[in-house]
């Protein structure tokens, strides 16, 4: 299933998921929802891409994985470049190599694919700086206490940026090997996974799971900023209002975590790495503008972000 949501800004770009679904309808709905999300993300990341997503329903038994991805590649190729595919949940760079054997419309293969996590982390760091500037009125992170939930690929790299900027870290992750390397490298304080919500801190950075900002967790937060990499952090739209009402500045997840998309898009256009880093740092400026507008209009930042994306996508902005 390939869903193309909007190609006003350029060819649709979005990863290919290879996971199980309970029905064809569930898979189609997922592809459409994710494609729409990619349009919004690309619009605010200022990359020349539209939003698209592919879903391959994972069969119980995979007989010939290479043949599966070559067939998928032929489908991508039939679209003549309107959709560019990439890695997502369940797919690997090796799978994209198979796709690349039959179509040029793929970004991030075994040859050119780089881990997007460090770039994603750079964007989150830049967004966090913008949030601190807006909410705390300072350009320095020196001495601030930041709680990171999940110190995997992105969380660890974010911890490094924050440590280098003089922040104090409190972290959680159910994987002890991951917390240990942050303890060793950055003198991070480690707490049990559930205790991360109760930490008195300046900023909370969710970098593990989605859906963690909900009616149970938000009342426990003792921070003034939520800014992290995890996708779909708000359990539902009402949680954005709850954060705003509590005076907590929320950096919309799909804006702050767009560094990976910027990398995949710009590499596909053969842009130099310096350009990737420059555009990723600029996510902080985009967020700064969203925060200002949020304050002026007294509306949650994610509502402003959605509206801004729609203005770009549907031509009123
Ligand atoms: P990852 O799998 O490397 O790291 C996730 C970490 O979260 C793991 O260490 C895991 O043990 C931990 N975790 C799981 N449950 C937890 C819990 N209850 N409390 C605390 N930690 C928990 O993944 P990643 O690539 O670092 O991505 C992190 C998040 O950012 C994901 O939501 C991902 O979708 C999102 N994201 C990542 C990228 C990227 O470039 N990697 C880009 C955009 C968005």
Plain-language structure description:
With 317 residues, the chain is of the alpha/beta class. Helices cover 47% and strands 13% of the residues. The chain is built from twelve helices and eleven strands. The protein has helices at 24-45, 65-78, 93-100, 117-136, 153-164, 176-186, 237-245, 253-256, 259-268, 273-281, 283-297, 301-314; strands spanning 2-6, 12-13, 16-19, 50-57, 83-84, 145-149, 168-172, 189-190, 203-206, 225-226, 249-250. The strands form two sheets. The protein has a six-stranded parallel beta sheet, sandwiched between helices. Strands 1, 2, 3, 4 and 5 form a five-stranded mixed beta sheet that branches. Helix 5 (153-164) links the parallel strand 6 and strand 7. Helix 4 runs parallel beside helix 11 (283-297). The chain is globular. It starts with a strand and ends with a helix. Bound molecules: nicotinamide-adenine-dinucleotide.
